[in-house]
């Protein structure tokens, strides 16, 4: 495909606005993780409380994706995204002005930050509806690259907290959020042809199909692993290896960048060899990497290398899942994006919270990592169980040109 035809096909300002909104929203969605070392020190949090603090925005974001998806249908994407941004900006402004003084207050802020995590259900339809089928992959790849916002939080959050205090980081975040909000209002535009609103019954109808549950499970492992680690690794590197918050943030950013940048590559590889084959390799690699780090490697640099491998495999898995979903649920892709995205967030909540509880109860992160490695293997077993049926029904060569 030539570049000119893609630029002529859709609405570039809207695509750029969707990316910026998604990127900054994901940055603030996980910001309690990179700030977690300083917050936990000041508030005297236990390992379990630290895990729950970073996991709460992930769960809230997962559940709110469903709500935001419904609002997109009824209010259109641009207005829904604007409402979401105002809520997040207001919550951060309140936290900055009044401070966070207890574990319970971190959880309340986490619930509001979940609105930022739900941006997934807004940014993708906002961009997608402007582009014809042959350009969907490119458009969603550009908009979906906003996953990299999670790395920005890890890269800058701990250093800014060390210089200005972690409460003031909430205020500093308002600067880019405000600029992007203004740019979004000026640049984003709803596509002329928006599908009619879906009823709640249409969401529930999809859940009667067992393949919908398989996709939700598969994504809960790939995206759940990605966002769960993105939220937890700063605290992990600090606790396990004694790295200061700033260096732990840099280590986390390296892992998150790896997982973010390969998502489009994972989708492209799935196009070439088939999503099932691609996902099978991903789950094996993720299970092996998580099992290796579970033993508590002797060096933080060694752990970083293995975590990068884990994030590379999970990031590619995210792309592979969404190569398969549109083949199976072409007519219900909006509904399935919301449901599968929600399941991914639930997986992230489980991993982030379980690592904290694992450390508190057993004194080690090993059980938390091993259980998630086991889930990756369970996903591999499930994929193996359905692949023959998928390749002989909706994925059969005479029904689709895509590799399944």
UniProtKB/TrEMBL annotation:
One of the protein's GO biological processes: nitrate assimilation
Q: Quick one: a GO cellular component term?
A: membrane
Stretches that traverse the bilayer: 12-32, 52-72, 79-96, 108-127, 139-160, 166-187, 213-236, 248-266, 278-295, 301-321, 333-353, 365-386
Gene Ontology molecular function = nitrate transmembrane transporter activity
Record's bilayer topology term: Multi-pass membrane protein
Keywords for the protein's UniProt record, in alphabetical order:
Membrane, Nitrate assimilation, Transmembrane, Transmembrane helix
The cross-references to InterPro entries, in alphabetical order and at most eight, read: MFS (IPR011701), MFS_dom (IPR020846), MFS_trans_sf (IPR036259), NO3_transporter (IPR044772)
User: Mainly localized where?
Assistant: membrane
Major facilitator superfamily (MFS) profile domain boundaries: 13-391
Q: Where in the cell is it found?
A: Membrane
The record, for Pfam families, names: MFS_1 (PF07690)
Of which family is this protein a member? Belongs to the major facilitator superfamily. Nitrate/nitrite porter (TC 2.A.1.8) family.
Q: What is this protein called?
A: Nitrate transporter
